[in-house]
Amino acid sequence: ADGTYSVVSSFRGDQAGVGTVVGVVVNGSVVFNSSVTAKGQTVPYVTTVSLKAGNTVVFSVGPGSGSQNTGLSATITGPPTVTSGVQVLPQLAFGGGWYTALYFTNITSTPVSFTVSFIGDDGNPLTIPTLGASSMTVNLAARGTALTEIPNVGPLVQGYVSAALPAGITGYGVFRQSVPGVNDQEAVVPLSRSTATTST
Q1: Which of 24, 46, 57, 178 shows the greatest Cβ crowding within 10 Å of its Cβ?
Q2: 189, 89 contact by CB (below 8 A)
Q3: Residue 27 and residue 90: Cα distance in Å, rounded?
């Protein structure tokens, strides 16, 4: 999967007279090279690398001026597992004192695009006046955030939001109620799976 990986490795001389070249190659580019010249000697290499699906990490030994029996210890730890799927903001309200904002964040290192749909309580597409449409395309840069505001204009309109979020995209809604003579109140609600029956 695309993401940032941790590489913790160590080469070790495993025979008398060892004398060899060691290295690490990431996707065809040499990122580390050194030598092992004594039995029991360890040569560590620790780093983080940005990889895309299908990239490779190669640990290489030899040739050199002596014997080549060399041990290797290596651990590669990948990015958190993220899954894609339809998520919903189960309540959308604007007008009549209500405002809703939608925030989406890309936690991956790859730009993404996806569609967000607005649906009325009757199950039909709901046109958002400020957008002039019942859906929109969100374009997120790598590790970027996008904000869409649906202002408090006109009479109260209610519905919900549905989005087929790619892996690595998180989202939430912010509701604000404005009542004359009272401080505005806000609540933050995360998007939830379309199959969820409860949400905190």
Answers
A1: 24
A2: yes
A3: 43
Q: Which residue has the tokens 């904002």?
A: 101
- Give the integer Cα–Cα distance in Å for 98 and 163: 21
Q: Can you give the pTM of this predicted structure? A: 0.58
Q: Which tens digits make up the pLDDT trace of 129-171?
A: 999 999 999 999 999 999 999 999 999 999 999 998 988 899 9
Bridge partners for 171 per DSSP: 104
C-alpha distances in angstroms, 145 versus 1, 51, 91, 148? 21, 22, 21, 10
Q: Convert the pLDDT of each residue in 70-85 to its tens digit.
A: 999 999 987 765 555 7
How far is it, in rounded angstroms, from Cα 106 to Cα 166?
9
Output the average pLDDT for the chain. Answer: 90
Burial (CB count within 10 angstroms: exposed 0-12, middle 13-18, buried 19+), residue 196? exposed
